[in-house]
Amino acid sequence: MILVVFLIAYLVRRRLDSVNAVSSDELWRRWFRQGSVVKAGHESGIWSGLIIVFVPALLMALGVYVLALYGWRLAAYPLEILVLVLMMGTPGWRQSVEPYTQAWHKGDMQAAWHLIQERLPASERGAAVSPELMHLSLSKALLLSVFHRFFLIAFWYVVGGIGFAIFVRGLVALTEQWPQAAARPRYVAVCEWFNWIPVRLLSITFGIAGDLSGWLGEAKVAIAGITKKTSEILMISANGSLTGYALDPARFSQIHPDEWANYGGRSLSAVRDLLNRSMLVWICTLALLVIAGVV
C-alpha cells in the first residue's frame, strides 16, 4: 500500500500545484509562532524548534501504530494521503516561472528578476548581477525546492513511515520560516544530515534519467564528497545530466548567441523534465521493491 498511497498523494499534489492551491507553508508558519519569543542570548538555539516539529510527527506515528495494533491499519491510509498532499508540493512556482521565461524572451531582465527574486534565498538575491547568475540562482532554487518537497519526503516516507515524512518536512520549514533567523543556519546543518543519502540517490537518478555519460564526467566526484552541500550536488548532477548547456548559460550564449532569447524557457523546461523523469524512476523502483517484498 505504500506505493499506492504515495502515488495517489503525488498525483493529487501535482494537480494542486498546477492551480497554485493548498500550501503547507502557512500551516508551519502558524505552528512556529510558539517559538516567536525566546530569552535574550538564546536566539540561535534549535531545540525548541526541533521539539515543535517532532511532536506532530510523533503523534502521527503513534496514531498509525495504534490503528495497526487494533487491526485498523487500512483506516490510516486516507490520513497518510492527506498528510503527504499537505507536506509535498511547490505551489506558486509555475506562476512565477512562466512570466519569468516570457520576460527573458523579451530581453527584459529587470522584469524577470522582479518576478522571481522572492523564490531565491536572501543570501543570493544580491548575487544575480547578470542574467547568467540570475538564471543559475533560480535553477538551483527550483532544484532544491523540488528535492525538499518531493524526493526528500518520498525517501523518508518509504524508509521510516509518515512520522519521518512529517519530521523532515518540518526541518525544511524550520530552515525557511523559523521566527529566530539566527537559528536557521543551524537548522540547515541538521537538515543536511537527513539530505545526505536521498540527495545522492537523486544524483544517481539524474544520470539514469538523463545523459549518463555526461553525469559520469561531472557528478561521480560530487556524490563521493562527504562535505558537499545538497544544492551543490543537485547543480553539479543536473548540469552533467542535461545536454545542450541547459545549466551553462555562459557557454550557451557563446555557441548559440542567436537563440539566447529562448534560453531561459528551454533551460527551465529541461530541468523540470529531468525532475519529472527522475520521479518516474523512483516510482518504478518503489514498485519493484514492493513486488520483491522489500517494503
UniProtKB/TrEMBL annotation:
Keyword annotations from UniProtKB, A to Z: Membrane, Transmembrane, Transmembrane helix
Name this polypeptide is given: Regulatory signaling modulator protein AmpE
Pfam family, one: AmpE
Organism: Marinobacter salexigens
Membrane-spanning ranges: 45-67, 74-93, 146-168, 274-294
